[in-house]
């Protein structure tokens, strides 16, 4: 999941275009809003990586618009694991796949 803040409409700039679902959250978000956003991320994750514990190189972008947020980007990578959960859909070589994914992000000078 990639998090990127953008100036909000209250800052005199239009919000960025979206390609997925759009959520308007209060500050702080209500528990219902948090759950709806969490469900949307899970649904996109399942569409990209399957219903099990699979992974994908595709990035799920979460763009937030507010003048109260710092201007930075965060990437949430999957954690490293040593024991594959084959019964839950992970491939036997999950350790190598995760290490390769983390290494590719770490090698990026813009990351």
Automatic annotation (TrEMBL):
Extent of Pro residues compositional bias: 1-18
InterPro entries (UniProt xref): Dynamin, Dynamin_N, P-loop_NTPase
Region (Disordered): 1-21
Gene Ontology MF term list: GTPase activity; microtubule binding
One family name in Pfam for this protein: Dynamin_N
Source species, domain of life: Eukaryota
Gene Ontology terms: cellular component: cytoplasm; membrane; microtubule
Occurrences of domain Dynamin N-terminal (ranges): 32-84
Gene3D superfamilies, A to Z: P-loop containing nucleotide triphosphate hydrolases
Species in which this protein is naturally found: Strombidinopsis acuminata
Protein name per UniProt: Dynamin N-terminal domain-containing protein
